[in-house]
Amino acid sequence: MKCIVGLGNPGKKYENTRHNVGFMVVDELARRNGWQINKSKFKGTFVMEQFGGEKVILLKPQTYMNLSGESIRALIDFYNIEIDDIVVIYDDLDLPPGKIRLRQKGGHGGHNGVRNTIDHLGTKDFKRIRVGIGRPSTNMPVIDYVLGTFPKSDQENMQTSISKSADACESWLKGKPYLEVMNDYNNS
């Protein structure tokens, strides 16, 4: 069984914000496959379906970003999912809109949702897709920036990165080794 987790914040208030790009990728995967993310448990909403003959879970923690690890830990413990079978998707200030970076491990880079995930998983060694949102060009506080929506000028690039992230997930779900998926998508 594999699990793809998109990090974000629940509720209409945060729906289209930069910080919710992880949710947007999971929603795109569900849309493509005709799945409904309609189960609520483990402090999250999720769907469990078949993809390429294997069970896959798409999870959107509903704990708010800073406590995302609580939901992930509860779900993977219940379903006995190995850390190696998880991909966590989240926003990254250090990448420009439209860029994604796949990694097999790493630190939190100041991202509180990833920090909490590392704390709850007890390891930094989990697959991740960082989706670029860029940095504020003004003196805007980072919290206001990540909780803001994408300007019209970034929307096309963001749709590209959401689509590429979903493509990368599907490639991994079809059985391609993650290192090869990284090579494919980190160079695009």
Automatic annotation (TrEMBL):
The record marks 9 as: Discriminates between blocked and unblocked aminoacyl-tRNA. It comes from the Bacteria. It is an enzyme of class 3 (hydrolase). One of its GO terms (molecular function) is peptidyl-tRNA hydrolase activity. TRNA binds at residues 14, 64, 66, 112. Its EC number is 3.1.1.29. Keywords: Cytoplasm, Hydrolase, RNA-binding, tRNA-binding. SUPFAM superfamilies: Peptidyl-tRNA hydrolase-like. It is found in: Cytoplasm. One of its GO terms (cellular component) is cytoplasm. The record marks 91 as: Stabilizes the basic form of H active site to accept a proton. Catalyzes the release of premature peptidyl moieties from peptidyl-tRNA molecules trapped in stalled 50S ribosomal subunits, and thus maintains levels of free tRNAs and 50S ribosomes. Hydrolyzes ribosome-free peptidyl-tRNAs (with 1 or more amino acids incorporated), which drop off the ribosome during protein synthesis, or as a result of ribosome stalling. Monomer. This is Peptidyl-tRNA hydrolase. The gene is pth.
